[in-house]
Amino acid sequence: MALLIGRGSVSDLATELAAFLAEKVLKDEGAFKIFEALIAEGKLVDLFTKVLDSAPMVFGQKNEKKVEGFFSVLCSLVINETPKESVFPLLQRMLDVVLSSEVAALLKIRIVSNIFNLLSMTSEHRHMVFYKLVRFACDSDKLDIIRPYLKDAASWINRWEMPVERRRELLLLCSEVTVDDD
User: Fold this and answer.
1) Nearest to 132 by CA among 157, 98, 158, 102
2) DSSP for 34-78, written as a single string
3) Roughly how many angstroms between the first and final C-alpha of the chain, as a whole number?
4) Which long-range contacts (CB under 8 A, 24 or more apart) does 55-59 make?
């Protein structure tokens, strides 16, 4: 699967993503026909929901770059092509799929970091992604990988569109993991 972000139409990217999943992962032509019909009908939220149902199987691919690419294209389409009210539940589901997978912690961190970086600097969803990234890194004893970014968290939080309570929650987590780390 080649990453074609910024090239082709939304339909082309969604079709490429669906073809990769149906042909290379599921090995099911019937799945592709279902995905293709949803694309033709413009039902992208339904498409992404079905894709996420099968997404855990993507981790069976031996090529980690293809796995990362799959989630990057999917995330980009979710962020840019779905109604605002659908983005949060789809991103949350994507993070659950990634973080509950049986793959190495480093691959999970790379994918979640990619999702974080695909979101705009002021996105209200950055809080959730960053929180889950920090919590996972801490729980998997990989905090050293994201430690350099913790010092930037306070300035990022001020740019993110989120309630004060969620700001405090994230600052508290960053504080706890850096204190526990000392």
Assistant:
1) 98
2) HHHHHHHTT-HHHHHHHHHHHGGGGGG-S-HHHHHHHHHHHHHHH
3) 43
4) 55/21, 55/94, 55/97, 56/97, 56/100, 56/101, 57/25, 57/26, 58/21, 58/25, 59/101, 59/102, 59/103
pLDDT value for 181:
54
Give the separation between CA 78 and CA 177, rounded to whole angstroms.
31
Q: Which residues contact 182 (CB under 8 A, 6 or more apart)?
A: none
| Rounded Cα–Cα distance for residues 94 and 104 (Å) | 17
How deeply is 118 buried, as exposed, middle or buried, from its count of CB atoms within 10 A (0-12, 13-18, 19+)?
Answer: buried
Is pTM beyond 0.90? Reply is: no
Asked if 172 contacts 133 with a C-beta cutoff of 8 angstroms, the reply is no
Helices (H), the chain: 10-19, 29-40, 44-54, 64-81, 84-99, 105-118, 126-139, 143-150, 153-159, 164-181
The token pair at 66 is 């293809």
Residue 125 DSSP SS3: coil
Burial 8-41 (b: 16+ CB within 10 A, else e): eeeeebbbbbbebbbeebbeeeebbeebbebbee
Query: In the structure, what pLDDT confidence band is assigned to residue 99 with cuts at 50, 70 and 90?
Result: very high
